[in-house]
Amino acid sequence: MAWTPSSSLPLLSSPAGAVSSYELTQSPPASMSPGQTARITCGGPSVGGENVEWHQQKPGQARALVTYGDDNRPTGVPDQFSGANSGNMATLTISGARAKDEADYYCQLWDSSSNNPHSDTGGGTWVTPKSAPSVTLFPPPTEELSANKATLVCLISDFYPGSVTVAWKADGSTITRNVETTRASKQSNSNDWKSKGSYSCEVTHEGSTVTKTVKTSACS
């Protein structure tokens, strides 16, 4: 009997004709740098003897089929998605993961003899390609210092997902006066600037911190 994949699967209730369910266990949430490979597993009794579908669900969207039986793809799905099935474990591989691939991924079993779905899916695995911020700290230009002014600029770019928090420090102590967080800049007069040994910009993203420091003696 030919096996026909489903195009989407809301799975709000058991599909008609569904066979008895298996308890499926998926791997925990995964994160990686953009361009790296993500592998998601789906384990359970006799998984290797059944056809496996993998579905992608982005926030606010319906689930979409990405692979079926076990390493086929619907039209329009790129070949960065591939499936494998061996023993009691099925695997979805996402090669060259990018921000657009951030989503929940669910496995679904189909009975190989009756061509009917099992009534359960896996619990889902959230995949997040993460990119650490690029941070550059620019010291005050000589012209500003000559005019009794000092502006430091902390340039933050190329991070994903979400947002960053920025902290300014002078000689290791946090400062908040004359700080513009939307521009990530710190302003002071040249006397304030010269009274400190160093200024730092600390950028925290997804629990990791990048620190850039400039010594005032290097900008005299």
UniProtKB/TrEMBL annotation:
Keyword tags:
Cell membrane, Disulfide bond, Immunity, Immunoglobulin domain, Membrane, Secreted, Signal
Keyword Transferase recorded: no
User: Domain of life, per the record?
Assistant: Eukaryota
Q: Please state the protein's primary subcellular location.
A: membrane
Q: What start-end ranges are recorded for coiled-coil regions in this protein? A: none
* Gene Ontology terms: cellular component: extracellular region; plasma membrane
| One family name in Pfam for this protein | V-set
The alphabetized list of GO BP terms reads: immune system process
Task: Spell out the subcellular localization from the entry.
Answer: Cell membrane; Secreted
Q: Which residues form the Ig-like domain?
A: 15-109, 133-217
The identity of this protein, by name, is Ig-like domain-containing protein
> What organism is listed for this UniProt entry?
Bos indicus x Bos taurus (Hybrid cattle)
Where is the organism placed in the taxonomic lineage, from the top? Eukaryota, Metazoa, Chordata, Craniata, Vertebrata
